[in-house]
Amino acid sequence: MSKVLILGAGLVARPLVRYLLDHGFEVIVASRTVSKAINLVDNHPMGTAKELNLKDEDSLKKEVSEADLVISMVPYAFHPIVARYCIEYKKNMVTTSYVSEAMTDLNDAAKNAGILILNEIGLDPGIDHMEAMRIIHEVTGAGGEISNFTSYCGGLPAPEANTNPFGYKFSWSPLGVLLAGKNSAEYKMNGEKVSISSEDLFLNSVKVQIEGLGDFEGYPNRNSLPYIDLYGIQTTKTILRGTLRNVGWCSTLKKIVDLHLLDQEERDWTGFTYASFLRELMNNPNEQNLRRALGLYLNIDENSEIIDRLEWLGLLEDSPLSQTQASAIDIIGDRMLEKLQYQEGERDMIILQHTFEADYPNEKRDRIMSTLIDFGIPNGDSSMSRTVGLPPAIGTRLILEGEINLTGVHIPVIPEIYVPILTELKEIGIEFKEKRETL
């Protein structure tokens, strides 16, 4: 019987834990907050919950040494630490996070240890890679080449649950959502490299139409350029991987950035209210009409929907801040988490859409659109938790059962990984719909 150590017990961990338990694996869930681990295990006879602080190296090493495979669902900065212990004890490792330079540097050591470190095996990154490579390999196998590729992914409220002015509710870490708004971006468009500063990220949104659901906003996600080589599409003139949001998100987040509400420097806010906090950020402590002050500072109409959203969030209130020793991003993150919550029985929704243009030797040209639309289960697992948690669960099973035999640091861009995972996801209802047209 194989033993799987799962580090972390966050919002997306439940389907991962339940899948492995239901498939007969012994599962140890280790978390700094042991109550979360206990809830995930839920008295299953094959499951154990443990308290673990990742900074306690001796305890971490002990847990890694006793497992057959380690799934790291903790913040990405800890992954290289966990990976070194996995290499030391020759244990395979799985994560859903982007491959950092520190992880890439462990490739040779992982190969020498005879272990696989499988990264980017969630939703985005993860399912997006797998479906992209399925189509790319299909095109190249037919003698074609990819000339354009765009991909947008977003976790959003289902239409009936879209009930607040932001068009958004949190199905994963609020801090993670907001920190993503501080990323710069690079991509290639019509043969030209495009670089976007973090300050201008939300000025670069485009309309993205999703059949049956309407219009959304898409904006660039980090650096798309490395995927030209990772996907083997050196012929492409365009590559852009982006984030999908409801209309209005980008204009509002741009002004939140301009207000320095995403600043991470901790300060003493003792005695401040939300209103005086905003005045301090604007360096305008005496202006009583906050809507007017915001309009002037942000160069927008004081009656704009953007200021309406900030007011709905409670940032114009003369009520005490939720924290006094905190950064601005912590304060707005707390406020957004409080206000942008799913209510009981509400569903979330995942949208992932790939669009390719493919050229063939006979001068035929196709547009291929592959779209995943998945909904959460009312009073059950969210779509975010299923689409992030099930791919690493399936990948773990395949590794432990010997169906994936690789060593080194990998992402799921080869058929040995993506074919069986996509097949099983389809069997459980997480399925792409593909449309093709000749151009």
Give a structural overview.
The chain has 439 residues and is of the alpha/beta class. It folds into three domains: 3-118, Rossmann fold; 127-247 and 343-384 and 432-438, Dihydrodipicolinate Reductase, domain 2, CATH 3.30.360; 252-339, Domain 3, Saccharopine reductase, CATH 1.10.1870. The chain is built from 16 helices and 18 strands. Strand 8 (185-189) and strand 9 (192-196) form a beta hairpin. The longest helix has 18 residues, at 383-400. The relative contact order is 0.16.
Summarize the amount of helix as a percent range.
25-40%
The largest sheet has its strands arranged as 3-2-1-4-5-6-17
Strands, count = 18
Q: What's the number of structural domains?
A: 3
The computed structural class is alpha/beta
CATH structural fold name of the largest domain: Dihydrodipicolinate Reductase, domain 2
State the distance separating the first and last CA atoms: 53 Å
What is the quaternary state of this protein? single chain
Total count of helical runs of at least 4 residues: 16
Classified by CATH, the class of the largest domain is: Alpha Beta
Shape: globular
- Mean pLDDT across all residues, rounded? 95
The CATH architecture of the largest domain can be named as 2-Layer Sandwich
Q: Supply the CATH superfamily name of the largest domain.
A: Dihydrodipicolinate Reductase, domain 2
Low-confidence stretches: none
**Backbone CA Rg:** 23 Å
Please outline the major beta sheet: 7 strands, parallel
